[in-house]
Fold this sequence. Notes:
By secondary structure, this protein is mostly beta strands. It has two helices and 14 strands, in the order ααββββββββββββββ. Strands 1, 2, 3, 4 and 5 form a five-stranded antiparallel sheet that branches. Strands 9-10-12-13-14 form a five-stranded mixed β-barrel. The longest helix is centred in the N-terminal third of the chain and has 14 residues, at 23-36.
Amino acid sequence: MNLLRSLFLCGLLYAPCVLAHPALEAVENFVRGELALRHSGRISVQAGPLDARLRLPECSSYQAYLPNNLDAGRLVGNASVGLRCLAPARWNIFVPVKISIETDYLAAANALPAGRALQATDLVVRVGDLGALPANVLTRPEQAIGKTLKTALSPGQPLRQELLAMPIVIRSGQTVLLVFRGAGFTATNEGRALNQASEGQVAQARTASGTVVSGIAQADGTILVNASP
């Protein structure tokens, strides 16, 4: 049954029309391919239905694509995907797509207070539809273990990226090693930290001579100072 006849019959039935193979298949295969690059869970994609009033010329070559305002990372739940005909006619439509991604996600194993450095025993892995879960939900334990909670969590609450902070590696008042690195040389000195910082954040320290220097906090608790002119 070709596309024109399928759409004609849909119109006779006054029912929502689903594009016949291979147009619908082209959309679904395209979306599955985009999702497979980003997710390891079980993916289900259903394209259509379309308005029964559509009357499209028959097509033998389809190309599915993402609209400019839709990032592939947000392909979840209900979305709209572009479909253009390349030959023999040329037309362009948007196809509604329903996406379900069944995946593992992390949740709080019990009540967790703000400021807690997460351990494996604080986490439980559950299975859910990514489209029904909060944005930026974490899916792997290594994304959370060692990080600090910014806010308290109740048992079973999903863990999201924005709820976590990198662990503090430098605390205000502690003695820190300053590593000065420039073109062709490296030098070290000691100082007293003036603020607390996580890895990658700016940290300040005062040397014994009273000089205040700024650098980037490292995972080992040192401060890397760029000494290049």
